[in-house]
Design brief:
Oligomer: single chain
Largest sheet: 5 strands, mixed
Number of helices: 6
Number of strands: 5
Order of helices and strands: EHEEEHHHEHH
């Protein structure tokens, strides 16, 4: 609809990734995967920043974790240098990514960030900085890297544990709401044949309420206590 093909799955803040995901991505035409969350492992540090991720059926995608390993970035000089120094695959790849702007809560890049970018572009003593789209980055990563490592199976986040079981009542109510809305849609469609109307507005509002409460801190049970009162 937008005359644009999505080549990159961009999931910076998700609590682990199923081993089935590379197969789904590959069959959907998505070749690249980006995240930052795995940098927050509690005990065992994830060994790679740039790597090929292989799924259950052998499908693979090119993956990249932000080497600076921060939740968000405002292009601070120390963060740029830290990312360049800590990049595990720097002997195999000359390029890494550092998204910038106001992260948690949204807002994106602001004028000070763009000013820093312009000043750092060719600043002596700093890694070279340039802007590009995620697709452009991954295309260059794929072309300019040599013998990147491979990770097979689940990408487990050793941190926010229990997201499949915590707040079980909330999870149960969510699933029940999904089934009830599906039945309501079918019954509303049948109602048309008896001269009634399809309750589009009411169903649309109900679905939006359910989807809002599927936000990734609410449904996993990792939100603040007041959410579940």
């Amino acid at each position: 609809e937008f005359n644009f093909d999505v080549a990159t799955l961009w999931l910076p803040d998700v609590f682990g990734y199923s081993a089935a995901l590379p197969q789904i991505l590959k069959r959907s035409g998505v070749r690249y995967f980006f995240t930052t969350k795995l940098a927050l492992n509690q005990f065992v540090k994830f060994p790679y920043h740039s790597f090929y991720w292989e799924g259950l059926d052998g499908s693979e995608v090119l993956a990249h974790i932000m080497p600076a390993e921060e939740y968000s970035s405002e292009l601070e000089p120390w963060l740029i240098r830290t990312g360049a120094y800590d990049y595990v695959q720097k002997d195999r790849s000359p390029i890494q990514i550092l998204p910038f702007g106001h992260g948690d809560g949204g807002g994106g890049p602001a004028q000070p960030h763009l000013e820093r970018l312009a000043r750092y572009r060719d600043f002596e003593g700093m890694p070279r900085v340039e802007t590009m789209s995620p697709k452009e980055f991954f295309t260059r990563l794929e072309k300019e890297s040599v013998a990147l490592p491979r990770w097979v199976g689940e990408l487990y986040l050793e941190n926010h544990r229990g997201c499949y079981t915590t707040q079980a009542h909330t999870k149960k109510c969510n699933r029940r709401a999904e089934f009830l809305l599906r039945e309501a849609e079918m019954l509303s469609a049948l109602n048309i044949h008896d001269g009634g109307k399809y309750e589009h507005k009411r169903l649309n509002k109900a679905w939006k309420d359910v989807l809002l409460n599927q936000f990734h801190d609410i449904l996993p049970g990792s939100s603040i206590d007041e959410v579940y009162v």
